[in-house]
Amino acid sequence: MSEALPTRAGGLGPAAGPGGAPAAGRPSVIQLVFREKGALYAAYIPIFSEGGLFVPTTRDYKLGDDIYLLLSLPDDTQRFPVAGKVAWITPPNASGGRTQGVGVRFPSDEKSRQLKIKIEEVLGTSISSSKPTQTL
Fold it and tell me: What does 59-126 look like in DSSP terms, one character per residue?
């Protein structure tokens, strides 16, 4: 199974502050490309009422930090911009072999509601699978 491929938009990303953290007041910009439905399933966070995704990253984040995602879904050429917030953190060397990264909660707006519906349509019946994921 292929993984989601996080990259910085434009190959550069935002200006970094001390320790590689984003400069104050500027959200991180991460391109998140899902080539396969299995990778999207592993990253999707259905317990967030607005929807959300796990983003693999080694960058240090705090709860509530802003993250701007440019999201690509399997078999879809459209990129979906999402201005989300860090809602949980999986630290390095987490138990259970979990990948280091952050859970990003989508905002409460109409665009996010439509994106959540689209993700759930792509996942179809697999959304209720008992297969392990990178999320809660």
Answer: S---TT-EEEEEEE-TT---EEEEEEEEEEEE-TT-GGGPPSEEEEEPPSSHHHHHHHHHHHHHHGGG
> Is residue 57's pLDDT more than 50?
yes
- Measured CA to CA, the distance from residue 60 to residue 21 in angstroms comes to 7
Give Cα separations from 79 to 39, 45, 72, 111, 123 (angstroms): 17, 19, 5, 13, 17
The pTM of this model reads: 0.75
Residue 51: count of CB within 10 angstroms of its CB: 24
Q: How far apart are CA 15 and CA 12, in angstroms?
A: 8
Condensed to tens digits (0 to 9), the pLDDT of residues 86-119 reads: 999 999 988 888 889 999 999 999 999 999 999 9
What is the average pLDDT score of the chain? 79
